[in-house]
Design goal:
The structure holds 2 protein chains of 2 kinds. Chain A is α/β, with parallel strands linked by helices. Chain A has 13 helices and 18 strands. Helices cover 29% and strands 20% of the residues of chain A. In chain A, the strands form 4 sheets. In chain A, strands 3, 5, 6, 9, 10, 17 and 18 form a 7-stranded mixed sheet that branches. A 6-stranded parallel sheet of chain A has the order 13-12-11-14-15-16, sandwiched between helices. In chain A, strand 11, helix 6 and strand 12 form a beta-alpha-beta unit. The longest helix of chain B has 18 residues, at 158-175. The radius of gyration of chain B is 18 Å and the shape is globular. The chains are: A alpha/beta, B alpha+beta. Bound molecules: nicotinamide-adenine-dinucleotide (NAD) and zinc ion (2 copies).
């Protein structure tokens, strides 16, 4: 089959690789009909996530048709149409029983690597380093899906792939980010980052009762999408003063009830601290660039909540922890507990409350993916989300 | 590997503390390594009753399904069995004897001759708050310095093997299989791929877990 492979920092290639096969009784093989490139893939592309190996198949947002099932999978049949969650969960362990699916104990074959780094291991993920399982990803024509009796969500209506594909990650991720923000009716919520995760975070914040959402980014096309959802926007690159001033001005000086960091470890910064973080990460004295996280902690109101869907991988420096303590804030974060959200969010799509396909800007073939990774990273061509049809024949 | 044949030195178990972690309310740290003796203690919270976990562990003939590099276990007596282990093309065998056997509670064993010198104990303990069963393993090996250095370089450090085996045991007991990704399709590997594979522990085959997929 054809697959997008990570070949080193800033280098991906579409190659022909072996087809996957059933290995365990609870596996299924999915013939992928649509897949996407995620902001999280950029952390791999830019070399921020350790234990990638050249040849690793990328991609964790995919859906398709069940091609084959293992002997213990009784809820799926060949021909079923499914969306696959990017976190792999067994459904049986202590954490799965608590619905902390992203903390599953039994889905990461390389748990010892993550234990060494974090103390405990999270669940396995598709196409996201050996430390997170070493599973082949879904930017390919087929994928092997472990614990297929627990994860994949069957799509029984005739909704198009594009309308349901983002149930594989970014819609649930945005929703959990809003839920983690502990929004009460009428609350003001500030969201950093208007990429795909930020978009669904904004939409979900309104679903959960936010009275006002302030959306922050520097790309006009993304800010325009956020305004389309009803948010007020701040372009941090154009602000004369700082984002913090803008946020204070917009909240009568008290700050937002909740601040959400939908940017993560590669935050771009126009201030001096950005230079500081770039130098430190280049010297390996810091692994992540937490400019947005610092701002979110500074900006949130006293007793407010900071929710962090943006990914962090390692060490960060100059955390304003005194501000966090002094204001008595709450912080919630983590990989998305996918399995909790997929079905209820599918129902919202079925009822027409949201059409997630509005963020798609590019539709491409597997061969075009390597060039698009660069465009996606540099946010060129007004890119807002790239969807791949793995069966489309179109040369790069 | 001559040093694999050193005389068994494992003290008969249970030792004073055995695998247990708390004695009279105090935390007991695991024993420390000394002159060629390695100890490892590891534990897991498993969603299955002690009786079922005991039964799975006690059925030593099934060990190749969940223990790394164990090729075969043959019952040789009421309390004895013969173990065969293969790493790459090196094969070693030893006999093992069960020292203590308390259904749903605890099993202790030691080797009684052959190419490996080990002793161990596993206890199954109801976790508080109905959250499952704690499975606690204490395993002791005696091995020459050379062996352990060699093992660490080429394969799993034996301590890590005990930790991984308990992880496999837990996965098998909870899910009916052992998670695996070593067969994942991939593109062209680079020059240092083999080194990285062993660094990631991926050069040790994940045990099969079940006989059928
Ligand atoms: N928690 C999870 O399970 C989960 C799942 C998916 C994605 N993520 C993470 O969410 C984050 C966003 O993903 P995405 O797909 O939307 O990526 P993206 O790269 O498309 O979006 C990030 C956006 O942040 C903006 N940004 C950068 N610096 C900023 C700053 N200083 N202030 C305000 N905005 C800034 C960028 O302009 C961009 O629009 C990533 O870190 C990704 O890894 C997490
Ligand atoms: Zn993603
Ligand atoms: Zn689990």
């Amino acid at each position: 089959m054809k697959a997008v492979c990570w070949m080193g920092k800033n280098n991906v290639e579409t190659q022909t690789v072996e087809d996957p096969s059933i290995i365990n009784p609870r596996d299924a093989i999915i013939r992928i009909t649509r897949t996407a490139i995620c902001g999280s893939d950029l952390h791999l592309y830019d070399g921020f996530i350790p234990t990638m190996e050249s040849g690793d198949v990328l991609g964790h947002e995919f859906m398709g048709i069940v091609e084959e099932t293992g002997s213990e999978v009784t809820n799926l049949r060949r021909g079923d149409r499914v969306v696959v969650p990017f976190t792999i969960a067994c459904g049986n362990c202590f954490f799965c029983k608590k619905k902390l699916w992203a903390a599953c104990d039994n889905s990461n074959p390389n748990a010892h690597l993550m234990e060494a780094a974090y103390g405990y291991s999270g669940s396995g993920l598709f196409g996201y380093s050996h430390m997170m399982g070493g599973y082949a990803g879904g930017q390919a024509q087929y994928a092997r899906v472990p614990f297929a009796d627990v994860g994949p969500l069957k799509i029984e209506s005739d909704l198009s792939d594009e309308k349901v594909l983002f149930l594989s990650d970014i819609f649930p991720t945005g929703y959990m980010a809003a839920e983690n923000a502990q929004i009460e009716p009428g609350d003001t919520v500030a969201v950093w980052g208007c990429g795909p995760v930020g978009q669904f975070t904004i939409a979900s914040a309104f679903m959960l009762g936010a009275g006002r959402v302030i959306a922050i980014d520097r790309f006009e096309e993304r800010l325009a999408l956020a305004r389309g959802l009803g948010a007020g926007t701040v372009n941090y690159a154009e602000e004369d003063g700082s984002v913090l001033t803008a946020i204070k001005d917009l909240t009568g000086g008290i700050g937002p009830d909740s601040c959400i960091d939908a940017v993560g470890l590669e935050a771009h910064s126009v201030e001096l601290q950005g230079v500081y973080d770039t130098i430190k990460t280049a010297l390996l004295m810091e692994t992540d660039r937490p400019a947005v996280l610092r701002q979110a902690i500074q900006a949130v109101r006293k007793g407010g909540t900071v929710s962090i869907p943006g990914v962090y991988g390692g060490l960060i420096d100059k955390m304003p922890f005194g501000a966090a303590f002094g204001k008595g804030i709450t912080m919630k974060m983590g990989q998305t507990n996918m399995h909790t959200y997929m079905k209820p969010l599918l129902e919202r799509i079925e009822k027409g409350q949201i059409d997630p396909s509005y963020i798609i800007s590019h539709r491409i073939s597997l061969e075009e993916a390597p060039a698009m990774y660069k465009i996606w990273r540099d946010k060129k061509e007004n890119v807002t989300k790239i969807v791949i049809d793995p069966w489309l024949q179109r040369a790069a | 590997m001559a040093n694999l044949n050193e005389k068994p030195n494992a003290e008969p178990l249970p030792r004073q503390s055995g695998a247990s972690i708390i004695l009279n309310g105090r935390y007991l740290p695991p024993p420390e390594d000394e002159d060629g003796k390695l100890w490892v203690r590891t534990s897991a919270l498993v969603q299955s009753p002690p009786q079922a976990l005991y039964a799975l562990w006690r059925n030593v003939e099934l060990a190749p399904l969940w223990q790394e590099e164990i090729e075969e276990v043959v019952i040789t007596g009421e309390k004895t069995s013969r173990w065969t282990m293969r790493s790459d093309d090196k094969v070693i065998t030893w006999d093992s004897e069960i020292l203590a056997d308390q259904p749903a509670k605890r099993i202790a064993w030691r080797s009684i001759g052959g190419d490996s010198d080990n002793a161990g104990e596993v206890i199954f303990e109801q976790a508080p708050g109905g959250r499952g069963t704690y499975v606690i393993v204490l395993q002791e090996f005696r091995m020459g310095k050379l062996t352990s250095a060699w093992e660490t370089l080429t394969g799993r450090n034996p301590k890590q093997a005990v930790i991984e085996n308990l992880r496999h045991f837990k996965a098998l007991a909870e899910t009916g299989e052992i998670p695996r990704s070593q067969e994942a399709p991939h593109g062209k590997r680079g020059l240092i791929a083999r080194f990285k594979r062993s660094l990631y522990g991926e050069s040790i085959a994940t045990p099969p877990g079940t006989k059928v997929a």
